[in-house]
């Protein structure tokens, strides 16, 4: 909304009153302006804010209840009673099995991640035996599978998919030894240039809670067809702004959400193993010990222009619209568009290794253009000084990944200046 509504009239009046030399007149003016007109100003301000909130509620953002946030924490600091953060893969917090790889998180920029993966192995000294071991670097497949399951849930529940920020997941690796070693073996890894970037035994967390629910009503047959309707009641502590995704297996014909319940239509007479996935949308607690890493989210910046455009569906592909979208997706990073160009494959190759691609939706295996001959929308982005860190380039990749879903006629690429 407009900034003038933040005008501090009380401070302004107090400053102006000091210009009145006559104390009696100053006292009378203060009573008239502050105690009289001041109440009118305060009432007007409160009515204005109420109107703004009402308009914001009516212009609901699509998918606002289904934002996914993610962070990382040390396994020893994981708090199982935290009401907001839950493990992306429950097996991460279970007891480690014999032969399971060593988990690490590499707090390095995207380009350095590529060098680390290409390195292939990491050397380590087995202290008790005094021998050198080679540990192979690999990306945990379970996180990719978790993203596939989440995408499938969105599709099944007819909720539009928005790119989930995978900046933290991209930095998680497992190191697997070439020979079996005891779980309590002391390994001194030779990290080399990565010494200050490696954090061991880290796990990813997100705001997605898996809840088992059951139907508290007998199934209702719909007579004209062999279809059954089941009602599932959501938990009493359900927050108003939280989204729910239902997992009930195959053969689900429709899912309808009501205020405190979910109605599922299916052709099956029995419906078992139904799970509800709750996406918490409140502010994450800031006082949890050990949870101090950056939060990456696909929650968009909330302002009136974005809400209105999403409500009306009028998207004009103009430079101003492109700049607004990048700003809306930038999150805690102040990333802006400094320029763009439409080029071909040769122009993309000419831009060199500094080109960033939006690849955070590759797990969905969506390939609309089998022989991609589209022109390239090359966006030059610039991060404001002071907001740049090792995750800044990942934020640019996330922005390009979402833009690719909205500008399908181009292949979206970017350069972060």
Notes on the protein architecture:
The chain is α+β, with helices and mostly antiparallel strands and 417 residues long. It folds into 4 domains: 3-58; 66-204, no CATH class; 209-279; 300-416, no CATH class. The chain has 8 helices and 21 strands. The protein has helices at residues 9-17, 23-58, 110-119, 141-156, 304-312, 319-329, 345-350, 392-406; strands at residues 69-74, 86-87, 102-106, 121-126, 131-138, 172-177, 187-190, 198-200, 202-206, 208-212, 220-222, 227-233, 243-247, 252-257, 261-266, 275-279, 296-297, 335-343, 355-357, 376-383, 411-416. The strands form 5 sheets. The chain has a 6-stranded antiparallel sheet. A 4-stranded antiparallel sheet has the order 2-9-1-17, with no helix packed on it. A 4-stranded antiparallel sheet has the order 11-12-15-14, with no helix packed on it. A hairpin with a 4-residue loop joins strand 11 and strand 12 (227-233). The longest helix has 36 residues, at 23-58. The protein is globular. The two termini are 30 Å apart. The mean pLDDT is 83.
What labels describe this entry?
single chain; globular; four-stranded antiparallel sheet; 27% helix; six-stranded antiparallel sheet; 21 strands; 4 domains; 417 residues; alpha+beta
Mind sketching the topology for me?
Blueprint: H1 9-17, H2 23-58, E1 69-74, E2 86-87, E3 102-106, H3 110-119, E4 121-126, E5 131-138, H4 141-156, E6 172-177, E7 187-190, E8 198-200, E9 202-206, E10 208-212, E11 220-222, E12 227-233, E13 243-247, E14 252-257, E15 261-266, E16 275-279, E17 296-297, H5 304-312, H6 319-329, E18 335-343, H7 345-350, E19 355-357, E20 376-383, H8 392-406, E21 411-416
